[in-house]
Write a structure and sequence with these properties.
The complex is a heterodimer of chains A (445) and B (498). Chain A has 445 residues and is of the alpha/beta class. Chain A contains 14 helices and 17 strands. Chain A folds into 3 domains: 1-63, no CATH class; 72-82 and 350-444, Aspartate Aminotransferase, domain 1 (Alpha-Beta Complex), CATH 3.90.1150.10; 86-344, Type I PLP-dependent aspartate aminotransferase-like (Major domain) (Aspartate Aminotransferase, domain 2, 3-Layer(aba) Sandwich), CATH 3.40.640.10. Chain A has helices at residues 16-26, 54-65, 86-92, 95-98, 110-127, 139-153, 169-178, 198-204, 227-236, 247-252, 320-323, 336-373, 399-408, 430-444; strands at residues 72-73, 131-132, 160-164, 185-189, 191-192, 195-196, 209-215, 240-245, 263-267, 282-286, 298-303, 309-314, 378-379, 390-395, 411-412, 414-417, 420-424. Chain A starts with 15 loop residues before the first helix and ends with a helix. With 498 residues, chain B is α/β, with parallel strands linked by helices. Classes of the chains: A alpha/beta (445), B alpha/beta (498).
């Protein structure tokens, strides 16, 4: 490897001598000769994008991102900024994890396969359901995949998918795109004081329903109290009961298998990823019955030629690269590396750490709501329910104005109604919560 | 290099292998399982459980291990993985390039860690960066408008198909219910079209491995919604008749979709927009060097021509009219007029997009054009050096060799013993015992020689040797049949068994 670096890409190592020798070997005068591109569609290579040194590029990105304001985010509603232990960054960033791809050659990829197997096992414990895939993109797309699963496995002529009226618009819209190619129709059922309105859901449900979706906690942070009844209702209508949650909530709240859930979806990256502008990790777990209808990749245990336990991607005949238009999903590239991070974060916390984290957020949200409730002109929480990590507060003043004013004081909250803000404690240190209370007092006064 | 032998030190390879109690690295659950009881009046460090028992689970049983134990576990696991940084990874169709390290630093900037529900005004940095990336990608693909929301290539395909559906519906052409896909296309094309509710019409190749124009004419009809095409195709061949193909598809009222999996071959040489494509996806984890992470995350932005822009997912990012002369430009999210809505809960795989932006900004015109030049040179040189037959050409960034009388899957297993990752095997099926090989631009001549030596060593070996391979990897040949026949998908399943 002597001689001058001859290429325009800093990551192509060819020297002038190499290039000459290679061209000679292939019998071409120039690299241009190797392109079989008709003149009428050829491009001159001018994108008008300047090349930069590594240092300049880092400076550019840093200067762009410096335009983001530094605020304390009391934000949740499906994306959470928990503290991620250093071990996760340092070990997940090891080259072998980061620079490998899908384990098409399992013999040389045992480490990643085992980590994904452990991730699947974590989800099995959390959900009580025996089959968990090794990732979907995010909660919204996992919900979409759950609906297409319902469409495949239900014998009924029905086509209705029931979702809570409070479902995040983005999740509902994603779901609607996923079912656009089927005859499924997405409909809302009512919510009462922040949780499922069971009478309303009963009235909405009939034998035309193929899937009922509920979330625990809900998007407004409330904890569902009648999930078993929802499960019974789904079962009596031969509908799939799909429950949305996340690994921290699942550490503490009712086990989905115990309330009759057929599928659990959600965002697993509450563990493993810091706030990432909505990037996530789709959790997907289900019953044994639907094993061969599951979307996405599954890691299974087997044996190698020395009879030692070894891991491999399995049941691949469900997947697009083999089954093509009859595959259970079109997913190929998934979120494997995020799943690795989630498994690492869970391992660092251990079961007691996971339960503690969830319990602490219940207490912290409750305490914060009590403090806000003491401010004249604020009622918190709005819903007379238990909450996990976030809650809705009523403000007498217009919520938008309150939020804008809070932002100027360095705090971001959700506006969820004309006079409603939503506040989340996940990942926010206690002393910041104290300062937030003071800031809101200042705004309301 | 002709005198190089497989036993030469430079091609010898032994992967790390930890064995305890006769098994490879134990599962976390075999190191510890601790059951934590919840509720039931149990006192915890902070007092009683904060929720009534009927709202909580009874217990949680998972490994409880110390940080040093975990550091060792994950370090060992990492050592039992082959990645791009371990050696050449010529997995055809996957564009396994080197992932520049600095992009990890960029993605780890604390200022990048913002919540998706932040107000527009307070995340101008994110919005400007995304706006610039939309612009970069538009230029690179020759497209008028770009969405960054799709979180992977297949998700990008899905957006393309949904956009096509919305476009036809808008024009009163909702009856179009067929999508044409070449036989040799990526499996995701078929699966995506089916997910979108379309009937898939499979298109045979001609004798030279390209789109058969007569077959295309026969397949096109008033029911055609789109043709999904990869160019260069999966054999690495440029579809020379692309202008005519585009005309045929457009004359039939269909749209032309570009699968961006092979864009690395054409960077700076040709653009899908100039070839007549209406909609395309970019695989940023391939073309723009973001790490594949053991299967993902990637990102699959979609570019379209002006006519399709109103149908793109919401929101997109645009520059606002200047509020004052000389002031910094401001950016805002907006909803395209006839948007298909959302295909991801938020804005896609932000951290991946950030790395892709940094890669493009680092390379610039010259670097991007050189990526394709060096990738194509590397593929041609490697093909020249190996003894396996390459039936179709002229190819670009990848070629498909035939293992001939050998079983391509066995060839791949044996190549592992020579310290290289093998090509994609047995696909596309148009080449018997296919070895689909894509070295990318990041390999030096010396590495390609070593890679060729691995191919050639295996080419000279007998079936018994191949079937016994691999022998230097962590695990030996794994029994796929048993894995599928009695699925054990969790440590709980393993415990139930024993």
């Amino acid at each position: 490897m002597h001689g001058s670096h001859a290429t325009g890409s800093p990551y192509a190592p060819h020297t002038e001598e190499d290039r000459t020798a290679m061209l000679e070997a292939v019998g071409a005068d120039s690299v241009e000769d190797l392109f079989d591109v008709p003149a009428e569609v050829a491009f001159d290579g001018r994108f008008d994008i300047d090349a930069r040194s590594e240092r300049e590029t880092r400076r550019l990105v840093r200067s762009l991102l410096a335009r983001n304001d530094e605020v304390t985010e009391l934000l949740g509603r499906g994306h959470y900024g928990y503290y991620v232990p250093s071990l996760v960054d340092h070990l997940a960033d090891r080259s072998e994890f980061l620079t490998s791809y899908t384990q098409y050659q399992p013999e040389v990829s045992q480490g990643f396969l085992q980590a994904l197997f452990e991730y699947q096992s974590l989800l099995v414990e959390l959900t009580g359901l025996p089959v968990a895939n090794c990732s979907m993109y995010d909660a919204a797309t996992a919900l979409g995949e759950a609906a297409t699963l319902a469409d495949r496995i239900r014998d009924t002529t029905g086509h209705r998918v029931l979702v809570p009226e409070l479902l995040r618009e983005e999740r509902r819209s994603t779901l609607e795109n996923y079912v656009a190619g089927t005859d499924l129709v997405v409909e809302s059922y009512p919510v009462e004081d922040g949780t499922v309105d069971l009478a309303g859901l009963e009235a909405a449900a009939d034998e035309e329903v193929v899937m009922i979706y509920a979330e625990n906690p809900t998007v407004r942070g409330t904890i569902e109290e009648r999930l078993e009844a929802v499960g019974d209702l789904a079962e009596s209508n031969d509908a799939l009961f799909v429950l949305g949650s996340d690994p921290i909530a699942l550490s503490l709240l009712e086990r989905p298998a115990d309330v009759g859930a057929d599928v659990v979806i959600g965002d697993a990256s509450v563990l493993g990823l810091p706030t990432s502008y909505g990037m996530g990790l789709g959790l997907f777990a289900t019953r044994e019955d639907y094993l061969r209808q599951v979307p996405g990749r599954l890691v299974g245990a087997s044996e190698d030629a020395t009879d030692r336990r070894a891991y491999t991607l399995t049941l691949q005949t469900r997947e697009q690269h083999i089954r093509r238009e009859r595959a259970t999903s079109n997913i190929c590239t998934n979120q494997a590396w995020v799943a690795l991070r989630t498994a690492m974060h869970a391992a660092v916390l251990g079961p007691s750490g996971m339960v503690d984290l969830a319990e602490r957020d219940v207490r912290r949200a409750r305490d914060l709501a009590a403090q806000l409730d003491e401010i004249v002109g604020v009622k918190a929480p709005v819903h007379d329910r238990h909450h996990l990590r976030e809650f809705v507060a009523r403000v007498d003043q217009p919520a938008r104005a309150v939020a804008d004013d809070l932002e100027k004081r360095g705090f971001a909250v959700h506006v969820v109604g004309d006079h409603e803000i939503q506040v989340c404690v996940a990942g926010v240190p206690d002393e910041r919560l104290d300062r937030f209370v003071a800031a809101l007092e200042g705004v309301i006064r | 290099m002709s005198d190089e032998r497989p036993d030469d030190p430079q091609v010898r390879y032994d992967q790390a292998r930890y064995v305890e109690n006769g098994e490879y690295e134990p599962l976390l659950s075999e190191k510890d399982l601790t059951r934590v009881e919840i509720g039931g009046g149990e006192e915890t460090a902070d007092g009683e459980s904060p929720l009534p028992d009927d709202l909580t689970r009874d217990s949680l049983e998972l490994p409880e291990l110390s940080e040093p134990e975990l550091a060792r576990h994950y370090t060992r696991l990492s050592q039992m993985i082959y990645g791009i940084d371990s050696g050449p990874y010529p997995l055809g169709s996957c564009t396994m390039k080197y992932n520049p390290k600095f992009t990890e630093d960029v993605a780890a900037l604390p200022s990048a860690a913002v919540h998706p529900d932040r107000s527009e005004g307070s995340v101008q940095g994110n919005l400007e960066l995304l706006y610039r990336l939309q612009d970069y990608l538009g230029r690179i693909g020759g497209m008028d408008a770009v969405t960054l929301q799709p979180p992977a290539g297949a998700a990008g395909e899905f957006v393309g198909i949904r956009v096509a559906a919305a476009y036809h519906e808008h024009n009163g052409e909702g009856h179009r219910d067929e999508v044409i896909v070449p036989e040799s296309a990526h499996g995701t094309n078929f699966a995506t079209a089916a997910l979108g509710g379309y009937d898939v019409v499979s298109l045979p190749s001609d004798d030279e491995g390209r789109v058969d124009l007569e077959a295309l004419e026969a397949a096109l009809s008033e029911n055609t919604a789109a043709l999904m095409l990869t160019n260069p195709n999966t054999l690495g061949l440029f579809e020379r008749d692309i202008t005519e193909i585009a005309e045929l598809v457009h004359d039939a009222g269909g749209l032309l979709y570009y699968d961006g999996a092979n864009l690395n071959a054409l960077l700076g040489r040709a653009r899908p927009g100039d070839m007549g494509f209406d909609v395309m996806h970019y695989n940023v984890h391939k073309t723009f060097a973001t790490p594949h992470g053991g299967g993902g995350p990637g990102a699959g932005p979609v570019g379209v021509v002006d006519d399709l822009a109103p149908f793109l997912p919401a929101p997109r990012v645009r520059q606002r009219e200047a509020e004052s002369a000389g002031g910094e430009p401001r950016y805002e999210r907006f909803e395209p007029d006839h948007t298909i809505g959302k295909v991801h809960g938020f804005y896609g795989n932000w951290l991946v997009l950030l790395k892709a932006f940094a890669y493009i900004a680092r390379l610039g015109d010259e670097g991007l054009a050189d990526a394709s030049a060096s990738a194509v040179l590397n593929a041609n040189y490697l093909a020249e050096r190996i003894e396996y037959d390459v039936p179709y050409g002229p190819f670009h960034h990848e070629f498909v060799a035939s293992a001939g009388e050998q079983d391509a899957a066995d060839v791949a297993k044996r190549m592992l013993d020579y310290g290289v990752h093998p090509p994609t095997t047995k696909w596309p099926e148009i080449v018997p015992e296919a070895l689909m090989t894509e070295p990318t631009e990041v390999e030096s001549k010396a590495t390609l020689d070593r890679l060729a030596a691995a191919f050639n060593a295996v080419a000279g070996e007998d079936d018994a040797t191949l079937e016994a391979a691999p022998e230097r990897t962590t695990a030996r040949r794994i029994d796929q049949t048993s894995a599928a026949r009695s699925p054990r998908l969790s440590w709980q399943a393993l415990a139930d068994e024993s």
